[in-house]
Specification:
With 53 residues, this protein is mainly α. Helix content is 66%, strand content 0%. The protein has one domain. It is built from two helices and no strands.
Length: 53
């Protein structure tokens, strides 16, 4: 999660509409879920191995 927060970066200037804490959390969670899916898919691919392709 820290890696994702670092990658998403500074949330910037606060704005009630569009750039608030909820928008920032949504960006972090989207990036986290994308990273989690990538790791999951990589593990599945590694478990298949080249001989199964």
């Amino acid at each position: 999660m820290r890696e994702v927060v670092r990658d998403v970066g500074d949330p910037g200037e606060y704005a009630l509409l569009g750039n608030n804490c909820q928008a920032y959390v949504e960006k972090v969670l989207t990036a986290y879920n994308r990273l989690r899916e990538t790791i999951h898919n990589h593990r599945i691919f590694d478990s298949i191995g080249d001989e199964d392709l």
